[in-house]
Amino acid sequence: MRLKERHQHILSTTIRHYVATAEPVSSKTLVNEYDLTVSSATVRNAMGFLEKAGLLYQPHTSAGRIPSDWGYRTYVDQIMSLDQTMRRKLDHLLSNAIKEEVGSLEALLYGVAQLLATLSGYIALITLPQQDTSTLRHLQLFPVDSQHIMLIIITDTYQTQSGLINPPPRIAEKLASGEGVEEELELLSNFLNRKLEGQPLSELANLNVEDLEQEWKQDRDFLGQICQKLTQQSQNRPSSPILVRGISEVLRQPEFSQLQQVQTLLHLLEAEQDQLCSLIFNLVEPNDDQKKVRVRIGSENPLEPMQICSLISADYYQGKLLAGSVGLIGPTRMLYENAIALVEVAADTLSEALTKVEGGEL
């Protein structure tokens, strides 16, 4: 629902006070500390309306009120404005960090994660560049037995992968008879390297084999099989590891005072990164209607350990290819205008840096 201006102002001040103090907020507190220019009774009535609407609630009888997940959601969607001062500060710090880490992608990602954690006071997450952005650097074909040839590939990030494929009939016959085929496979490897080097692995399955088989017409199906295998290797890679920074800082927050809550969150961060990756990494290409920064608040998170937290994330790119995501995890009692600005600037900065790497500028 769309709140009236007065209700927006009361909800905003309640959230700001609760974020700052972690204490339930009374109408008397708002009147005394925020110069609302209205009576305590008016504020009390407004808070009662917000409570009936599900935006505030009392944690126990006779206590003040605190924001609900829906209250924070309404604040984020309708009321807040981004912290432009924080945006400028982070932009300056990240620009300096990039200059210091020229040529080292891993050091750059670690530096950005640490800056996000330090400036926000929350847990910073950055997924390493996803495998579907990897391109082919080199491949090699080796005979294994009469039924299999091994394909070994090296990506542009120097990751090595291998897989078995079935040889075409004429090569299978040679393998079965004991004829040497190493030289022929070497020639085919060289041919494929010339044609495919620099191509994204994820796109090779859609490659038009007809464009490749002029010199190897009789092995057209085999060439298609190799391209399919290269794409399969890309898809079968495990989720990218996640850089995590700032755990010690956020665990000082009162929301994490219970040992069980701490243990389940730490287990998720350390041992269940595949589940976490599916939350922070946007597997669907964004469209014009989708917001650049995604905000999941409390119960909006499908993973139970995350339901006392908010997760803010945005994607970063290498050129036009989706590379990874940047995120912050903190209590739902979060400075959303600050955190959203941090994540947005960090994602933009990483995209700019990786695009320069792709263009040979960094």
User: How many structural domains can be distinguished in the coordinates?
Assistant: 3
What is the first-to-last residue Cα distance? Answer: 48 Å
Spans of at least 5 consecutive residues whose pLDDT stays below 50 are 283-289
For this structure, what is the CATH homologous superfamily of the largest domain?
GAF domain
The CATH class of the largest domain: Alpha Beta
Q: Could you give the order of strands across the largest sheet?
A: 7-3-10-9-8
Following the backbone from N to C, one meets helices and strands in this order, namely HHHEEHHHEEEEHHHEHHHEEEH
CATH fold call of the largest domain? Beta-Lactamase
Function: Negative regulator of class I heat shock genes (grpE-dnaK-dnaJ and groELS operons). Prevents heat-shock induction of these operons.
GO biological process, one term: negative regulation of DNA-templated transcription
Family: Belongs to the HrcA family.
Domain Heat-inducible transcription repressor HrcA C-terminal: 107-340
